[in-house]
Design brief:
Structural class: alpha+beta
Largest sheet: 4 strands, mixed
Distance between the termini: 50 Å
Radius of gyration: 14 Å
Number of strands: 6
Length: about 100
């Protein structure tokens, strides 16, 4: 029963994240390369702030470890063993 409750809670969190687009601004060069990188903690914090949900950095699954370029990325979130959500992250240069 406890496992079922956790899955239902994860599915509710996934529903809140559906079609979410989060913009993260970072220092970048004129060529679109970031000075530094954006990792799982940065993404988890940005999503948590955007939807008022607590997202752990361990739930963020980055395809290549960290983001180093400006652009749009589809990021997978593993909210539960059986529940995945996808969020679009837009990395933009700071003005």
């Amino acid at each position: 029963a406890a496992a079922a409750d956790k899955k239902v809670a994860a599915e509710a969190r996934a529903a809140k994240l559906a079609d979410l687009v989060v913009t993260i601004e970072a220092n970048a060069s004129d060529e679109g390369k970031l000075f530094g990188s954006i990792g799982t903690r940065d993404i988890a914090d940005a999503i948590s702030a955007a939807v008022d949900l607590e997202i752990a950095k361990s739930e963020v699954k980055l395809p290549e470890g960290v983001l180093r370029d400006i652009g749009e990325y589809d990021i997978d979130l593993q909210l539960h063993v059986d529940v995945m959500a996808q969020v679009k992250i837009v990395v933009a240069a700071q003005a």
